[in-house]
Amino acid sequence: MPHMTRVLVIDDNDDFRKLALLWFQIHGIEAEGAANGVQGLELQRARPATVIVTDIFMPEKEGIETIQDLRREFPQAKIIAMTGREALTDYDVFQVAREVGAVKTLKKPFKLDDLVAVVKELSP
Amino acid sequence: MAAAQEKLDADQARERAPKTLGDVLYAGRSGAPAAEQEWFGLVRAIAAGDQVALHALYERSHRLVFTLLMRITGRRKMAEELTLEVFHDVWRRAYRYDPGEGTVVGRLMNQARSRALARLRAGQRKKNDEAEFADERRALCAALDTLAPEERQTIEGAFFSELTHAEIALRRKESLETVGTRIGSGLHKLRQALAEGRGKP
Fold first, then answer.
1. Min Cα separation A122/chain B (Å)
2. B126 and B142 both lie in a single domain
3. Taking a contact as any Cβ pair under 8 Å apart, which residues of chain B between 128 and 157 contact chain A?
4. What is this structure's pTM?
5. Is B90 among the domain residues?
6. What is the pLDDT of residues B119-138, one digit of tens each?
7. CB under 8 Å to B51, separation ≥6 — which residues?
């Protein structure tokens, strides 16, 4: 059964983004992708998603700033922050992501089925 | 007496030996290192489109940049590429240079360092990405094999080539409706194949 959820995946990693989008669609969840925060915001303004999955470290506009902007413009959207890279600084990026508005955080590698489950859990 | 002479010779040799990286890089060059005002003058000329100034800046500083890049990356080819990138960036962005933000050489070195780290991280990341989601990729490849060729090509066009339905329709000389149908049936079959193969979804 298709879900009413619409997901926006923001990740500069093309392989992951494409795989995740297909995985969501296979599970009956409408999904679109953006390669960076700027594109993600534009897409969200054009076709708002209910759940947004965003990488934390990205070029152009990095994830924390993206989450802040999304939270400001789209307070209803649920944001999942993810990263697999080592933190380059000594602070906990996930904690910062939560402080600026992410409701869930995921560390790669995770199972895509787990991501789908989290999205369903957050769906209206 | 001989011991005293040996000590004297050793002291003189130490005096002549290069003490800093700058001594090594500028060995054999006459005159003192350029004043910051000169460096800034070059950057200003580059910002105005002066290629000779870019060449002069390159001549003065590329060894320093290259050495730093070699030390960070440990790879000659990568260091050479990044050195060119650093100076290409100077050419494109010299107009943005603000003397209040640090010395020209300092900026070049920062630029080199961040480019090197970004390149190394990208390489590491690619390795990690290839290893990530391997189970899903394998399962998906097996599931894609269950599709009819036209469904598979349509699904691959939509999700891997990121084509719009209209673009796929144009390429395949099919109607938009047909493309939509193929994607729908393809996704359904993939769902079934994955469910059969892995008990999910």
1. 18
2. no
3. 128-129, 131-133, 135-137, 140, 155
4. 0.60
5. yes
6. 887 777 666 666 678 888 88
7. none
Strand A6-10 vs strand A30-34: parallel, antiparallel, or unpaired? parallel
Domains (range + CATH), chain A: 6-118 (3.40.50.2300)
Cβ–Cβ contact B32 with A under 8 A? no
* Pairing state between β A51-55 and A6-10: parallel
Determine the average pLDDT of the residues in B161-189. Answer: 93
Q: Is B122 on the interface with A (CB under 8 A)?
A: no
Taking the Cβ of residue B31 and every Cβ of chain A, the question of whether any pair is shorter than 8 Å is answered with no
| pLDDT tens digits along B84-105 | 999 999 998 898 888 887 889 8
Residues pairing with A33 in the sheet: A9
B180 pLDDT higher than 90: yes
Which of B105, B131, B157 delimits the end of a domain? B131
Instruction: For residue A103, count CB atoms less than 10 angstroms from its CB and return exposed for 0-12, middle for 13-18, buried for 19 or more.
Output: middle
Find out whether A77 and A70 touch, Cβ atoms under 8 Å: yes
Question: Which structural domain, as residue segments, surrounds residue B68?
Answer: 31-131
Which residue, among A27, A37, A56, A14, has the nearest Cα to A118 in the 3D structure? A27
Amino acid at B19: K
Nearest CA in chain A to B191: A26
Residue A32 CB contacts under 8 Å (≥ 6 apart), including other chains: A6, A7, A8, A9, A21, A43, A47, A49
> Are B99 and B163 in a shared domain?
no
